[in-house]
Design brief:
This protein is mainly beta and 747 residues long. The chain is built from nine helices and 47 strands. The strands form twelve sheets. The protein has a five-stranded mixed β-sheet, with no helix packed on it.
Length: 747
């Protein structure tokens, strides 16, 4: 939220300068640039998200200003909201309690008259904003909710169709669709580069020492254009497009970097490397700033000696050309040994003017391009247990991503030294990583040709697929790419292969399209809601007074990294603000249903298995009471996690063994505040627990079921025949619930 507000300062200032012919005065511009004011705006190229909440659902902008849900939350809107918030804070404590909140916004809902309906709606709104259920809303919590309601929430709740990458039905490789023996590399591809200076054209480099050019067709397929033979037997290890000059830079294993002009001739070469270059990236240097008023591109190169080189590729003057066979010369700005092993990936971060490098020494380094800049330093990120194979930067979300031999993807805030999240799911070393920010996706590839697609906001794996084609001589995929013009994913082994982002129609526009597996009634008296969940990971929140859907979000089942996981259990938390979701891979996650964002990940312990039941224990709005999430499942255990401010938690306690359910599957759980819990298992036994200390209060064994007599009639429940063994499937406790919690104590 802080980043979005900071970004909106610039966007709001830009709109203020451009609007009304630049007629805003200096005071308005000063207000737009003030860091103390919250700002928000939508990028010009982003389409307005679809509305998904019901008409009865209130957002803060519409409460304060009468704005429609689909309207953009502008600078003026946000300033008015902040003024309203600050004026409502009567005690000056920096936060609003429920009564202050209702009093502040009640007048904006209608004609100013008292309305019990408006009061109830505002109290519901307060409870939605107060996601941590501490009974107070501060400005950070307040503004974050507004931002999510205004942008991400509607995107996540939009009732759109499923989008999946599917292979193109027709993969034409060759000129005019005809087979061409040169239309495939003789060895694995090492890079796939979009030639933005040429329409729909891609260049591939390969271990066979050649560059090949390809063109995408609008109707599907890829056309081979030509081969560029560099007349060298050395592997080509990397390639990148030079944005200023429109040329292609390639690196080779014989310790050279070459520049190819638009006629695909070598127009520049650097051969002074001590070690073989393995990876490279480039960024725009600027036109007509080099000597002779020519072009200049920046290039960063990582090699197998642990060095990173920052170079400038500069067009020569006429006098320089007379003394050289090339048109482009190189200037080495600096070379530094940053790693103790191969440098496998380099990335330029424009926002901070730094180079990010990943290495097989398990570290990630961030170093300033200008070593003489004020505050220039080298930062080291450590968190992977194996070598780092790929790094990627998200300008939109301001996060750094790294992929490793240890099969994980780490997400970093570059200003800190610890990862903010980790993505699990790959079964083999991850070799490539790519961001598709237009789709809010992370795409990763491992050495076994498995591709995983992750949603950037929920961090859930939304698709997993394998390229089952066998390639020769190396059965591997060497490069990833994405074509924004046609929304197609590209993979390359010996030639490019296309995967189209395809819309798969849903059977219905609202509600569930997969079997419903759980329902839960919101326990808060201020809500009239029921949440339901299906095996496909869709969670819906309904108003049970009229059956209308209020919120809906998807992909709640795959946050543990297993794309084949199913959602198996769900319950509201004790305060009715969030929903807890369990999956077949043993992972439990906590979500804010009003905006579809995951707020907590409960990591399972050893031997994790399918979650069959969930319960949340706490004292509602009491911020000082202990709050815990409990899960039961096929691991024969009862597992507890603390529900505190952390976003990722490990189990606090696991109760299993002979003092618990033994080797029986635990199938159901129910909680009775403040500290009593019941669990039932596949043998029909019910156990009553003290949650605070984990002590077993009672064990309620299931009575034997009646057995049919020889004449086919059922035996009496208390007969001797009924005491004999009955099948476990007939005895299993499938569900348990506490009754009478609100009755007087003498009842």
């Amino acid at each position: 939220a802080a980043y979005i507000q900071k970004r909106a300062v610039v966007m709001a200032a830009g709109r203020a300068a451009a609007g009304a012919g630049g007629g805003h005065d200096g005071d308005e511009m000063a207000a737009a640039s003030s860091p103390s004011a919250a700002r928000f705006g939508r990028d010009d190229d982003e389409a307005p998200p679809a509305r998904a909440s019901s008409a009865k659902s209130l957002d803060l902008a519409s409460v304060a200003l009468g704005a429609a849900l689909h309207d953009e939350i502008t600078l003026d809107v946000f300033e008015t909201l902040r003024a309203t918030f600050e004026s409502a804070d009567l005690d000056g404590g920096g936060s609003l309690d429920e009564d202050e909140f209702v009093a502040a916004f009640a007048a904006a809902l209608g004609d100013g008259s008292e309305s019990s309906g408006n009061d109830a709606r505002l109290r519901q709104l307060f409870n939605r904003v107060d996601a941590n259920a501490d009974g107070a809303v501060d400005w950070d919590e307040f503004s974050t909710y507004v931002l999510l309601e205004g942008q991400a929430a509607r995107e996540l709740r939009a009732l759109d169709a499923v989008r999946k990458y599917l292979p193109e039905k027709e993969q034409r490789v060759g000129v005019a669709g005809q087979s061409d023996p040169e239309a495939k590399h003789r060895d694995v591809v090492t890079s796939l580069t979009k030639m933005t200076s040429l329409r729909d054209t891609y260049a591939t480099t390969s271990h066979d020492g050649t560059v090949r050019l390809w063109q995408l067709s609008s109707d599907g397929g890829v056309k081979y254009v030509r081969k560029v033979d560099l007349r060298s037997r050395a592997y080509l290890t990397a390639g990148c497009h030079l944005d200023t000059s429109g040329r292609l830079a390639v690196a080779s294993h014989d310790r050279k970097v070459k520049i190819l002009d638009k006629g695909w001739k070598v127009c520049g070469q650097l051969s002074t490397f001590q070690y073989a270059p393995l990876c490279m990236t480039s960024w725009r240097g600027g036109a007509k700033i080099a000597p002779g008023h020519k072009d200049m591109d920046w290039i960063a190169v990582g090699d197998d000696g642990g060095y990173v080189h920052v170079l400038q590729a500069i067009d020569m003057t006429d006098g320089e050309k007379a003394q050289s066979e090339y048109k482009v010369r190189f200037e080495n700005k600096w070379t530094r040994k940053l790693h103790d092993d191969w440098v496998t990936s380099v990335q330029y971060v424009k926002e901070d003017d730094v180079i990010v490098s990943g290495s097989l020494d398990r570290t990630v380094k961030l170093v300033d391009v200008d070593p003489n800049a004020l505050g220039a330093r080298t930062r080291t990120l450590q968190g992977h247990k194996g070598g780092v194979n790929a790094v990627a930067w998200s300008p939109r979300f301001k996060l750094l991503l790294t992929a490793s031999v240890d099969k994980t993807i780490l997400l970093w805030n570059p200003l800190t030294s610890k990862p903010v999240d980790v993505l699990y799911g790959h079964g083999a070393s991850i070799s490539h990583l790519m961001l598709v920010e237009s789709e809010s996706q992370i795409i990763s590839l491992d050495v076994e040709k498995n591709v995983r697609v992750w949603d950037f906001k929920s961090r859930a794996c939304v698709q997993s697929f394998e390229d089952k084609t066998s390639y020769f001589p190396v059965n591997a995929i060497g490069a990833l790419g994405f074509d924004h013009g046609t929304s197609r994913l590209l993979t390359a082994s010996i030639s490019p292969k296309l995967w189209k982002l395809t819309v798969i129609d849903r059977a219905a526009s609202v509600g569930h399209n997969r079997p419903a597996v759980a329902v839960s009634v919101n326990p808060s008296p201020g809500f009239t809601q029921i949440a339901s969940a299906d095996s496909g990971g869709c969670v819906c929140v309904w108003d049970f007074t009229d059956g209308e859907i209020e919120y809906r979000f998807t992909d709640a089942h795959a946050v543990g990294g297993d794309a084949d996981a199913r959602l198996t259990a769900m319950t509201y938390d004790a305060a009715g603000r969030r929903v807890c979701v369990g999956a077949s891979d043993g992972v439990v996650s906590v979500w804010n249903p009003s905006n579809g964002h995951r707020v907590k990940l409960c990591v399972p312990g050893d031997g994790a298995a399918e979650v069959t039941g969930l319960a949340h224990m706490g004292e509602g709005d009491d911020a000082f009471a202990f709050k815990r999430v409990a899960a039961v499942g096929w691991d024969h255990a009862v597992t507890f996690w603390d529900d505190d401010a952390r976003v990722r938690v490990n189990p606090r306690r696991r109760m299993r063994g002979e003092k618990a359910h033994g080797d029986a599957d635990v199938l159901c759980v129910a909680a009775a505040p403040p500290d009593v819990m019941a669990t039932g298992d596949s043998r029909g036994d019910l156990l009553i627990w003290n949650v605070e200390n984990g002590a077993l209060r009672h064990k309620l064994p299931a009575p034997p079921l009646p057995k049919k007599l020889d004449d086919g009639h059922a035996a009496s429940f208390h007969s001797a025949a009924a005491a004999s063994y009955a099948p476990a499937s007939d005895r299993a406790a499938e569900s348990v619930v506490f009754l009478g919690r609100d009755l007087p104590k003498d009842k």
